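Subgroup meeting minutes
Present: P.N., E.W., G.H.
Scribe: E.W.

1. P.N. recapped why we're keeping a running log of single-chain structure predictions: easier to compare across weeks, and new members can see raw inputs and outputs side by side.
2. G.H. added today's entry (69 aa).
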Amino acid sequence: MKEAHLQTLEDLHSIILELTKSQKVNQQKIQLAEEFKSKFNDSKLVLGDKILALQNEFLEIITKNNLMT
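Output recorded in log:
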């Protein structure tokens, strides 16, 4: 009976260790996803600004050269 109890405790300990490892991995994945989302949003803002600047430059060029009809 004592051996069965010790085996159960060892099994539970192993499960706890595996769950702890899994939790750490999942936390790292969440952190990476949050960092990616932040960088992606920053990139979208920069890209949007650059597109707007190019549109303005394009409009200036076609206006300056009387290409608007």
